[in-house]
Amino acid sequence: MRNRMRLALLGLVCLLLTSCAGAGTIGTSDRTLVVAIVSNPQMEDAVALSHEFEKQNPGIKLKFVQLPENQARAKITSSVATEGGEFDVVMISNYETAQWAKNGWLENLQPYIDESKGYDQADFIPSIRDSLSYQDSMYAVPFYGESSFLAYRKDLFAQAGLKMPEHPTWQQIADFAAKLDDEKSGMAGICLRGKPGWGESLAPFNTVVNTFGGRWFDENWNAQLTSPEFRAATKFYVNLVREHGQVGASSSGFSECGTKYGQGQAAMWYDATVMAGTNENPEESKVVGKSAYTAAPVNKTEQSGWLYTWSLAMPKVTEHKDDAWKFMRWMTNKKFVQNVGAKFGWNAVPPGVRKSTYEIPEYRAAAEAYAEQTQKAIDSAKQENVMAKPVPYPGIQFVGIPEFQDLGTRVSQQLSAAIAGQISVDEALEQSQEYAESVGEAYKETR
Question: Would you indicate the residue range of the signal peptide (predicted)?
């Protein structure tokens, strides 16, 4: 099983990278930590503050390798799976953590956490902490956490005489989108991801599948991508974004939707809870104070949404373990949250990780529009709450197996093609079913 998992990971990084080469030789001194992270605003804030860490820890220098999400996943996976040793600290998610810990690729952080006075592991939101644990030990520490919810323009709803329910259904959202869509003014009824990538379009899409009663595999690992429920969810998602979504939806990811919504070009946006900080940042958004936030829309389930956390982990082969932990502790402790708030504004604070963050008066004031909804979304993001049927895999917006990086990416490409009108939904699902069946057969053999 372990060898098969390793081969699967190596195969998928070959698909995602132009070659199977690792990160390459990076010129480092003995006390230089090479940190591989995803490039987004929260991470850029950490990089901007990194000189403070170096000042507090003389002799340790930091070298960041920042990459877009899809590229970062491929490069980090390649390095860790092959024990390349290019990176001392890597940014991974709750998708990878337990799998890689089981494979022995990550350093167990629990001894470091237990010996770090004031780090306060109990302060982590339980669902986030548990998602980064394996056999009761944490193998990654969270930088920020998220679920998903719906942002909508209060002013546009008021002008149209519309009222958003506290727990909307997807049909209600589609009806609102139809009424608010205004092609002449360039206002999309809703913004939804259509960009290929299992961490891009499949994140929101899979929550729609879940609440429609769909699943990727049944309990016996039979692929279910052509089931009535999966098909209904896909047709709904594709039709909604094609009829009332943003221009260029098939190439829109989180960043692109963030720009469109922040520039006042979408009436609603369903995505990660972390979006709220950007929406309410006057330096990045033209709609500050005009949005309200409500629970992820549902269909057959009472709740919906996903659970995700970007976190820091230490590859087992890292030579500078003590130095690496010092940096990881610095970037994920309570003081860092306070520092970001003071330097960049409280809407820039990494959310969804520590309970104490939501007790900071300045943060509560700045995040009044979305803090409570964020907490509720993360707390309720459990499989039993957001899925209508049992599944044999962990994960909500992903299937927690190594092959999903490849499988999910392939299926997302089919979804994107359907959104672009290049193929029909039925054609996309028939091809996707074939991909999923080949993965499911391998798991049937090991049951």
Answer: 1-23
Q: Which of 327, 353, 375 is the last residue of a domain?
A: 375
Measured CA to CA, the distance from residue 189 to residue 167 in angstroms comes to 19
* Confidence check: pLDDT of 4 > 50: no
Q: What pLDDT digit, counting tens, does each position of 310-350 carry?
A: 999 999 999 999 999 999 999 999 999 999 999 999 988 99
For residue 32, what are the β-bridge partners? 61
Interatomic CA distance for residues 140 and 85, integer angstroms: 17
Place of tokens 């390349």: 84
**Two structure tokens written together for 174:** 């589609």
Structure tokens at 80: 């860790």
What does the pLDDT average to over 295-313?
96
Claim to verify: residue 198 and residue 72 sit in the same structural domain: no
Nearest to 56 by CA among 344, 343, 339: 339
Q: How far apart are CA 372 and CA 251, in angstroms?
A: 31
Residue 54 CA to residue 49 CA, distance in Å, equals 9
List C-alpha distances in Å: 293 to 302, 368, 370. Answer: 17, 11, 6
Residue 154 or residue 2, greater confidence: 154
- Rounded CA gap, 412 and 195, in Å? 8
If you ran DSSP here, which 8-state letter would residue 293 be given? E
Residue 354: what residue type?
R
- Kindly state whether residues 115 and 175 are assigned to the same domain: no
> Can you tell me the distance from the alpha carbon of 176 to that of 159, in angstroms, rounded to the nearest whole number?
13
Same domain, 195 and 239: yes
The stretch 150-174 carries a mean pLDDT of: 97
pLDDT in tens, 360-385: 999 999 999 999 999 999 988 999 99
* Average per-residue pLDDT for the chain: 91
With DSSP H G I counted as helix, E B as strand and the rest as coil, what are the percentages for the chain, rounded to 5?
50, 15, 35
Place of tokens 């269909």: 299
Range of the domain at 367: 2-145+308-375
- Indicate if the alpha-carbon torsion angle 212, 309, 380, 278 is positive or negative: negative
Judge contact between 208 and 170, C-beta under 8 A.
yes
The tokens describing 36, both together, are 């591989």
Q: What is the largest CA-CA distance in the chain?
A: 64
- How far is it, in rounded angstroms, from Cα 69 to Cα 408? 14
- Flag the least confident range among 16-25, 143-152, 193-202: 16-25
Q: Can you tell me whether residue 2 is helix, strand or coil? A: helix
**Residue 427 confidence (pLDDT) above 90:** yes
pLDDT of residue 337: 95
Q: What is the pTM of this model?
A: 0.85
